[in-house]
Amino acid sequence: MPRPRSAVPSSTSSASPEAGGAPLGPVRPGPDAEAALSPLTVEVRTGFWDTRRAVNARTSVPQGPGLLESAGNLHNLRVVAGAAEGEFQGAYPFVDSDVYKWLEAASWQLAQEGPGADGPLAADVERIVSLVADAQQPDGYLNTWFQLLKGGERYRDLRWGHELYCAGHLIQAAVAHHRSTGRTELLDVAVKFADHIDSVFGLPGSGKEIDGIDGHPEVETALVELYRETGERRYLDLAGYFVDRFGHGLLGGEAYCQDRVPLRAATDVEGHAVRQLYLLAAATDLATETGDAGLRAATERLWAAMTATKTHVTGGLGAHHDEEDFGDPYELPNERAYCETCAAIASIQWSWRMALLTGEARYSDLIERTLYNGFLAGISLDGERWLYVNPLQVRDGHTDPGGDQSARRTRWFRCACCPPNAMRLLASLEHYLASGDAGGLQIHQYVTGRYAGDLGGTPVAVSAETDYPWQGTIGLTVEESPADRPWTLSLRIPQWCGEYRIRCGDETYDQTDAPVTDGWLRLERTWAPGDRIVLELGLEPRLTAADPRVDAVRGCVAIERGPLVYCLEQVDHPGGGLDDIVLDTTRPLAVKHRPDLLGGVTTVVAAGHRRRIPDAGWWPYRSAEGDAPTAGEALELTAIPYYAWANREDGSMRVWLPTS
């Protein structure tokens, strides 16, 4: 059944991507969605995230086509399209998805350049979109692995084949391309593929050929967004079918691929972390669009279980290298922490959907922690090298195996899922920072820029100036406001923040005068342009201890300041390694800003020492009643933000520091 042509403008449409006032961005709840909040687009002007996004725009994204060329991804599409000859290049059936993730990143980047962008990036996008369209088969199917290596065989290896996973990333790229440029060439490809999938997959008795699900969720959340973009209800229904078929043994009943128990009945996250998170993002999208109370309850329950028992202090997720999975409750290792960069990205995507659905600030608390730590650590400061995994410790004398799971930054990966994934998040980051509702504007993340929305068609706008996360002062100025009615400016007070002050005009309040409700400081009044608000968040460095059930870090603390988790690197502590270092918790922590270090960072200076270990001979174990290690020479410890580690020389690193 073809979609109504009126649902999508023609490829030559001159309509603005934001026509009708709908914001750009990866998540756009529909007009009948039961979401508490609606996402807004924030203009990020200067400061921390502007710098990181500039590196992404200037270096990471432009390098994408060359890296995809050298890895063979584009070659495969050319062969399938009949524009070249040769064999499949690459090790995995999902290499097409790297192309689609890059296209999504580039499309969001084009939105920054404005309508009619015609520079080198636009040319690369147009060329690769054309290649994808040429590679698509007449009935809509597209997967170069199966078209080149498997003789055109389809959907015979759903557990490992990733055909629907790749389709999901194609759909998300197409939605981004359409929202950013107004063009439909890639959206036409995505719709054709989605229609093909809908013609093949369905429940027994539906007349469809296959009752099945993909071993790697992704198509589900993409189908919801395609429904939002086109208005075609079949895509929403298809997403719901896929989500509800997990847990019924279609993939062998394994926890690895979320097939052990139906999502609605699950009590904990399990299995492959990225797969679980993408599935939960889709369930949240469905709950948002349909009002399904069962799905909403399940997502809230599973998010709470994940954060309480399976989340590292960095926001990282995934305890096991083997199967890239969550592990057991409170199983949060350090040197063997997996914390895949893609898992951090998926966590941010899911938590944003939960924030919009519920209106609760805790979801944006986790987004902030993950953005500044578990996610950003995966990208080098120069935007050219990457970490697939993000351990919390690298030991003295570490022998690195190289490859994708290296603790050393890598130019590209054999399984290159993380780099283009990180590119697309950074390129679309302005859509994860603020929201609006009928009563006002909510600021989730603090940047220097402009937060704008509307109240019943009347514009509201607030500009912000801040040096966050290095400084805790956020200055806000009302730029636009209705003159005839009050509205609420809601500021998220981070979970880690123990003290704050707010100044509105000539009046100053602290936490006793201006209480926080569910993480929000709500300021309601009839605002006028020029009204000034100053929020001051206390950024005193602090020592953090884990739940005592986390065996790996018992007797240790982590250093934090504001949203940043800190670590020690060997390069800052000459004269020995880090394994013997002990932190002196009786001495105060000091702060020192270093504009010369790692692009400009605020360090935390602490006191400590290296242990003197008694000589135990050839056997490293001793009687518990024997001589204990003693304190050696005092040391000044320099802690840097975790996101900036592995940007200098190779060496040891640790987040959790022993205290005895």
Helix and strand topology:
Blueprint: E1 38-40, E2 42-46, H1 48-71, H2 73-81, H3 96-113, H4 120-135, H5 144-149, H6 158-161, H7 163-181, H8 185-200, H9 219-230, H10 233-245, H11 273-290, H12 293-309, H13 341-358, H14 362-375, E3 393-394, H15 418-427, E4 434-437, E5 440-443, E6 448-455, E7 458-466, E8 473-480, E9 487-492, E10 500-504, E11 507-510, E12 520-525, E13 532-537, E14 542-544, E15 556-561, E16 564-569, E17 581-583, E18 590-594, E19 601-612, E20 630-641, E21 653-654, E22 657-658
Parallel strand pairs: 5-9
Antiparallel strand pairs: 1-4, 2-6, 3-21, 4-5, 6-7, 7-8, 8-13, 9-12, 10-11, 10-13, 14-15, 15-16, 15-22, 16-20, 16-21, 17-19, 18-19, 19-20
Helix pairs in contact: 1-3, 1-15, 2-4, 3-4, 3-7, 3-15, 7-8, 7-9, 9-10, 9-11, 10-11, 11-12, 11-13, 13-14
Helix content: 25-40%
Distance linking N and C termini:
69 Å
> How many beta-strand elements?
22
Average pLDDT, all residues: 94
Sheet with the most strands?
A: 10 strands, antiparallel
Structural class: alpha+beta
